[in-house]
Each structure stands twice: as C-alpha cells, then as structure tokens.
Hints:
The structure is a single chain. By secondary structure, the protein is mainly alpha-helical. The protein has a domain at 1-60 and 71-130. 78% of the residues lie in helices and 0% in strands. It has helices at 2-58, 70-88, 95-107, 112-125, 132-152, 156-176, 181-197, 201-220, 226-239, 242-257, 263-267, 279-288. Helix 2 packs antiparallel against helix 3 and helix 4 (112-125) runs antiparallel to helix 5 (132-152). It is elongated.
Amino acid sequence: MGFYYGRKSLESMDEAQEKAKDDVEKLIDKSEKKIDNYAKEAMSIVENMRRQKIYDLTKNESLNTKNESLEEKEKRKEEIKEKASELKNDPKANPYEKSIAEAAENYFSCKYENALKYYEDIIKYYKDEITVTTLLQIYFRMAYMYSEMSDTEEKIEKKKNLLLKARDKYNEVLKLDKKNAKTYSNLGNVFAKRADLETEPGKKEISLNEAEKYCLECKSLGGGVYNLACIYARKYNLNGNTIYKDNTFKYLKEALEKKEKTFDFVENDKDFDSLKNDSRYKELKNDYGEDN
Length: 292
C-alpha cells in the first residue's frame, strides 16, 4: 500500500510540474504576444509620424493660393522651411526623407531649378517608398514651378516650353485624381498664360477656349471661379461679345461673395481694366471695396 500511495504521489507531482510548465509557457507566449503588439503599435506610431512629416513637406499648397498678407505668407514659408531643415538634419531620417526635405527647402526658398531636380530624382529613385498621395503632390508642385518659371523667362519659345511642361505635370496629377478641382483651375491659368504669348487672334482664342474648359470643370467640382471670371474678361476683350462680359461679372461677383479674392486684388488685376467704367463693376466696388 505504501508503494502504491508513493507512486500516486509521484505521479501527482509530475502532473503538477507539467501543468506548471504549461502555465509558464502560456504566460511567456502571452507576454511575447503583448510585447509584439506593443512593438507593432510603436512602429505604427513612428511610421505615421514619418508619413506626416512627408505630407507636411509635400502637400500641394502653392505660395499664392491663400488670401493672406505678405507677412503671413512669409511666416508660413519659414515654418515649412524649418520643418524641412529638421528632417534633413535628423540622423534617423533615410535618404528618401532627406531628399523630400531638400526639395521642400528649395521650393519654399523659390529655388525652383534645384527643387525640380530633387523631385525628378525622388520620382526616379524612390518608386518603392513614394506613396500615391505624395506622388500626386509632387507632380502638382512641379507643374506650379514650371508655370511660375515661365513668368520670368524672357524668350517666348522657352516660355511656351515651360508652360507645356506645366501642362504635362498637371495632367499627371489628373491621372491620379480626376476630381482635383485645383488642378483644373491651374490648368486654366496655364492656357491663359499661353494665350498671352500668341499674336494671332485665332490662336489666342483657341488657348482661351481651353482655359475656359478647364475652369468650368473646376467650377463643376466645387472649386473657385475667380479664374473663370478672368478668362471671360479676356474673351470679351478679344472679340467684344457681351455674353462674355455678362459672364465676367457673374463669376466675379460669385468669387467675391466666396471671398476667393479681395476687391483690392481685383482692382490690380489687368484683366478687368476694360470693365471698370461698367456700372456693374462700380456696384461690386461699392459692395466689396475696402470701406465695406
């Protein structure tokens, strides 16, 4: 009997040890899973912070789109340049992030040729890292720079070539986002600039028709209408059609109501010089001028 009870006791001890071993293994496994989850969460937070930094430095916000004072605009530029400098000098930043920072710093310093070179390299060498959103934003920014560079170029053919490059980059944006109202508006502006370079009325009208098409598409997507008012003013100046004149005041009033521009801005826009003696222009001045 003593032997029997002794054997039972040993078996119970073995079972207890086995159960304890299983419990420890389960606890270790549970702890490892928790640690793994914590690590994944931490990595996710870091990745989100990384993506936010990239987004902040590439979001398609041109230097002339906000109705803000010169001081506010300069302050905004300096804030973004500071973020770019921080990322560029971050020892943990990878080459892709540093390139994004370099491009943004040059862009907001208006060093467009340098910025374009960085963006071209980013598209070429970092296909595996670049997101669709970032690619869209880069194409938009490149198009904006080409358009801006055309304003300071003196040779007509080079101006036209820069505007073609701007058009092509905006079309790359639309391949990624067909409902980007801002892109349609800027495309309208590109063709309006192209119209300014044409000497023949027929060619000028063709460019203005293209500009009108893109600005109407912008409007249909809920975008601004100020550029559309400018296009109709130019078409009226070209052929004197009063329908274009009526459309000019229609969309100019809408733009002012939406506060897309101030009336002071309108006063300095040469597109409306020929309309300043019209009673409707004077009404808009009374309603939206500085004294109101």
